[in-house]
Design a protein that fits this description.
4-stranded mixed β-sheet; 30% helix; 25% strand
C-alpha cells in the first residue's frame, strides 16, 4: 500500500496537538503503581500505548476506557503474574518500562516483542535490575529480548547504568523506585543521552507524589514513598506537532498548534527554536505555538536532546540555503530502524547530497525529484517524508499505516492542511 502526497504551495492551518505518547505511557505505569483510582485525561490511544494498556491488564491492573480518558485502579505495587508472555510489538518504552515493572510480580515473567524489538539492546537495564535484587536476564543470553524477570520483592539500593544508549533504562528504574524497600540511588555512567526524557519522567513521578532528586544527570535519588492516585492531564505531543511546524517552514506558510505547552520539559518542544534559527518567525502563547515560514538557511545542531525530530529537521534542511549538519544522535541507530541509515538512503532518492556520519548526517540541498519512500515500518519516516511531498510533486509513502504507532489520525490531520 502506498500513500500519494499532494503538493501544496502554501500551508495555512490551525490544529490541536495530539496527546503525548511519552507522557501517556509514563502515566500508565505510575498510575498502575499508585495505591488507588487515578483518572488519566487527554490520553493518546496509539499502537504503543495500547501495548502498554494490554500489558498492565495482563498483570491484573483494572483499566477502564472512556472516550479520551482512562480510569486506572492502581494496586500499590501488588501485581499478579501474567498467564502468558507479555508482547510489546516494537514499542520501546513499553518493553523497557514493563521489564522494570515486572520486578514487582511474583514468579517468572517473560516479555518479548516483534523481530525489530528482538534486535534492540536491553542488557544494561537487566544488569541494573540485578543490582537491586531482581533476577532478570535475556532468554537467549544475547542481551536482547525476549527477557525473563523473576520478581516479587524489590529491595532497591544503589544501582549504576550506562547513560549513552537509552534514557528509557534510567526512566524505567526510576519509576519503580518509590516501591523499592530502600528506594533507589541511581548513578549514570558516562553522559546521559536524551536528558529531557528523564526530566519528563521525574515531572510525572512528582505529580503522583514521588520524591526524586536529580543531581546534574549524574545521580538520581528516589525515595521509597510510593505513589498516590490523582487526576492527571496528558499534555500535547511536541514530537508529533513538528511535522506541521515543518510544513509551514518549507512552504512559507503559517501553522498554529494549540493545546500545547510552549515551555514543556519535552525536548522536542525546542524544534521550533531551530526553525527560528533557520529563518522562520516563531510566536509562543500560553497554550499555543505559531510558526510563520520564511527563507531558510542551513544550520549545525546537536540534536541529542530532541532525537525524535531529527527526521523532521532533515526534511526542512532540503529547502534551506547551505548545508545542515545534525550530530550527536548516534542512538538513532537503535530505534524502530537505523534512522540515520534510513534517512541517508531515502534523502538520496530525492536527489539530496548526503554525507553519513557515525552520529548524524550532513545535508546539502540539490535539485529534488519525486520518489517512492520506504518507511522501514518507522512512523517518523512516514510522517517526515510526507512533509517533503508538499513541495516535491509525486512523492509516495509506502506502508502509511505505520503512523499508528504514535499518531493514529496523522493522515486525517495532514489532509486538513489542504482545506
Amino acid at each position: 500500500m502506498m500513500y500519494p502526497i499532494k503538493s501544496l504551495k502554501k500551508v495555512y492551518s490551525e490544529i490541536n496537538a495530539p496527546p503525548s505518547k511519552s507522557y501517556t505511557n509514563r502515566a500508565l505505569i505510575i498510575s498502575a503503581l499508585a495505591d488507588g483510582k487515578s483518572i488519566l485525561r487527554n490520553v493518546l490511544f496509539s499502537d504503543d500505548t495500547v501495548y502498554m494498556i494490554n500489558a498492565l491488564r495482563d498483570f491484573g491492573i483494572k483499566i477502564i476506557s472512556k472516550k479520551d480518558r482512562l480510569i486506572v485502579y492502581g494496586t500499590g505495587g501488588r501485581i499478579k503474574k501474567p498467564k502468558g508472555r507479555i508482547y510489546t510489538g516494537n514499542a520501546g518504552t513499553t518493553m523497557r518500562f514493563i521489564t522494570a515493572f515486572s520486578a514487582l510480580a511474583k514468579d517468572k515473567v517473560i516479555i518479548t516483542g516483534d523481530k525489530r524489538m528482538q534486535e534492540r539492546p536491553i542488557q544494561d537495564l537487566l544488569n541494573a535490575l540485578n543490582q537491586i535484587g531482581v533476577n532478570a536476564y535475556s532468554k537467549k543470553n544475547n542481551g536482547f529480548p525476549p527477557v525473563v524477570v523473576n520478581g516479587g520483592f524489590l529491595y532497591g539500593g544503589n544501582v549504576s547504568i550506562h547513560g549513552t544508549l537509552s534514557s528509557q533504562f534510567i526512566s524505567a528504574i526510576m519509576m519503580i523506585g518509590p516501591l523499592a524497600e530502600k528506594g533507589i540511588k541511581l548513578d549514570v555512567i558516562g553522559e546521559l543521552t536524551s536528558k529531557p526524557y528523564a526530566d519528563l519522567t521525574i515531572e510525572a513521578m512528582k505529580n503522583f507524589g514521588a520524591e526524586v532528586k536529580n543531581q546534574m544527570y549524574k545521580r538520581f535519588v528516589v525515595s521509597p514513598t510510593g505513589y498516590f492516585p490523582i487526576s492527571y492531564f496528558i499534555e500535547g505531543d511536541a514530537s508529533n506537532t513538528s511535522y506541521f511546524f515543518a510544513s509551514a517552514a518549507i512552504t512559507n506558510g503559517r501553522v498554529k498548534v494549540s493545546r500545547i505547552n510552549p515551555y514543556s520539559v519535552q525536548g522536542d518542544i525546542r524544534f521550533v527554536d531551530l526553525l527560528g534559527r533557520m529563518g522562520c518567525e516563531v510566536v509562543k502563547g500560553d497554550d499555543y505555538i505559531e510558526v510563520i515560514g520564511n527563507d531558510l538557511n542551513g544550520i549545525a545542531v546537536d540534536m541529542n536532546s530532541m532525537p525524535d525530530t531529527v527526521q523532521t529537521l532533515a526534511i526542512v534542511s532540503l529547502f534551506a540555503k547551505g548545508k545542515t549538519k545534525i550530530f550527536n544522535v548516534k542512538n538513532l541507530r537503535l530505534k524502530e530502524t537505523d534512522r540515520i541509515k534510513a534517512l541517508v538512503t531515502e534523502l538520496r532518492k530525492l536527489g539530496a547530497d548526503i554525507k553519513e556520519l557515525e552520529d548524524g548526517l550532513i545535508i546539502s540541498p540539490k535539485k529534488l525529484h519525486p520518489a517512492i519512500i520506504e518507511t522501514y515500518n518507522d512512523h517518523r519516516m512516514a510522517m517526515s517524508f510526507a512533509v517533503a511531498g508538499l513541495m516535491i510533486s509525486g512523492i509516495k509513502i509506502k506502508n502509511p499505516d505505520c503512523v499508528k504507532k504514535s499518531f493514529p489520525d496523522f493522515w486525517e490531520r495532514f489532509e486538513r492542511m489542504y482545506g
